[in-house]
Design goal:
The chain is built from 18 helices and two strands. The longest helix has 24 residues, at 184-207. By secondary structure, the chain is mostly helical. The radius of gyration is 20 Å and the shape is globular. Helix 13 runs antiparallel to helix 14 and helix 16 packs antiparallel against helix 17 (351-357). The protein has a two-stranded parallel ribbon with strand order 1-2. The chain has two domains: 8-30 and 273-401, Up-down Bundle (AhpD-like), CATH 1.20.1290; 49-207, AhpD-like (Up-down Bundle), CATH 1.20.1290.10.
Length: 408
């Protein structure tokens, strides 16, 4: 996607400074203030064996080693294109990335704990044992990076997960500590493991995907829930990862530094841009509201501007920043905005928001809406962590808050 020149009014606004936003709900509370309340029954039932078509079975063969789909894949198969979008990156980060299997499981289990995701915890605790984490260490993952028994680098990885979760970004100290042992590809794999399993956690939470019956591990219920991280640092003004030279937008050139990961990453994005289940305004509302919540300036700039072209499709970005309580939002659009807020703050879509979406959306549309916003939670976290810079000084920056409370 090539950059476009912004209209003169937007160029002037960018030069004079970011626009101002008023409204008490512009910023919502950050994640981690309370334990995620997990669902105990599915909102979307996994496909049973008699429901599996030949097309479903072909996807299962591609993405399972034994031909036995778990509840998560059976649920994704309700929208086969969605399964094909999710699974390449999930498979890569679970089995193929450049960091050790032990580090992968350490990060995945911490993300599952932060989001209260029983499914991922149950699936990955047995894998963690295979790769050298005993029962005491698995429990210690729930206790967090300050628990006694971690070496310095293990604690750094856990802090990476906590900071990305709470602040949608990583401190300079944590990045430096990672760099002492990891090269840039290792760091990207670690960050992307946290971010993608954040997408899976909030998506699985929202659909109510339950652990498979043969998996016995459960989140330690007696470990107090707490997330302790430094205050979010100012946004980076220079990239931590220099993008490739050449044509194209900076995010594409940044991920292009890592061709293997980029190949697996692209299908996750492609579904959102191709799907007919959402209209362009619905899609961009979900993306922009999540980018605003994560304070991802690059994300905001691209989807107001050359990628999402928000104003050209009838959206007022200022109203999106103000949130669902801004005047003039129709009832259904409020539910769309609250989808992004619920996922960001609470780790799953609330019953009220789900019911609101269901007034106009079919189940597969709800799945697409939650997926789109969940993915852009991860993308926003990546952009902030890597310090991806605006493509053009005239790109429209995040509006400034003039009222209400800030959760950042």
């Amino acid at each position: 996607m090539s950059a476009r020149t912004l209209p003169l009014a937007l160029t002037v606004a960018a030069v004079l400074g970011a626009p101002l936003v008023a409204g008490a709900q512009a910023h919502i509370d950050p994640p981690g203030a309370r334990r995620v309340a997990a669902l105990t029954t599915p909102r979307i039932a996994p496909l049973a064996d008699p429901e599996l078509t030949d097309a479903h079975k072909a996807i299962i063969v591609r993405f399972t080693r034994d031909g036995k789909p778990n509840n998560a894949l059976r649920t994704l198969l309700r929208v086969p294109e969605l399964a094909e979008a999710v699974m390449p990156y999930t498979t890569y980060l679970t089995n193929e990335s450049s960091i050790s299997p032990r580090y992968r499981e350490l990060l995945i289990l911490r993300v599952a704990w932060l989001h209260g995701n029983e499914n991922l915890w149950a699936e990955h605790a047995p894998r963690a044992r295979i790769y050298g984490l005993d029962d005491a260490a698995i429990r210690r993952i729930a206790e967090g990076p300050d628990a006694s028994g971690w070496d310095r680098f293990d604690a750094t990885l856990l802090r990476l997960a906590d900071q990305q979760y709470r602040n949608s970004s990583t401190t300079n100290a944590t990045w430096k500590a990672l760099s002492e042992r990891f090269d840039i590809f290792n760091i990207v794999d670690a960050v992307e493991t946290v971010n993608h399993f954040t997408t899976l956690s909030i998506y699985y939470n929202s659909l109510g995907i339950q652990p498979d019956a043969d998996l016995k591990d459960r989140l330690p219920a007696d470990v107090p829930y707490k997330v302790t991280v430094p205050a979010r640092e100012p946004a980076l003004t220079v990239p931590r990862i220099q993008p490739n030279q050449g044509r194209g937008i900076a995010v594409s050139r940044t991920f292009g530094r890592y061709p293997l990961l980029n190949q697996r990453w692209n299908p996750r994005q492609g579904f959102i841009l191709r799907t007919q289940l959402l209209t362009p305004p619905q899609r961009e509302m979900l993306i922009l509201r999540m980018g605003w919540n994560c304070q991802a300036e690059y994300e905001w700039a691209k989807h107001v501007g050359s990628v999402g072209r928000a104003r050209e499709i009838g959206l007022d970005p200022m109203k999106i920043a103000e949130g669902a309580d801004a005047p003039a939002w129709p009832a259904f659009e409020k539910h769309i905005l609250r989808t992004a807020d619920d996922l960001y703050r609470d780790g799953r879509v609330s019953d009220a928001t789900w019911s609101g979406l269901a007034t106009q959306f079919k189940p597969e549309q709800i799945m697409a809406a939650i997926y789109s916003s969940s993915v852009y939670r991860a993308i926003s976290m990546s952009l902030n962590a890597y310090g991806v810079q605006l493509d053009d000084p005239a790109d429209e920056r995040l509006p400034k808050l003039t009222g209400g409370r800030s959760g950042q």
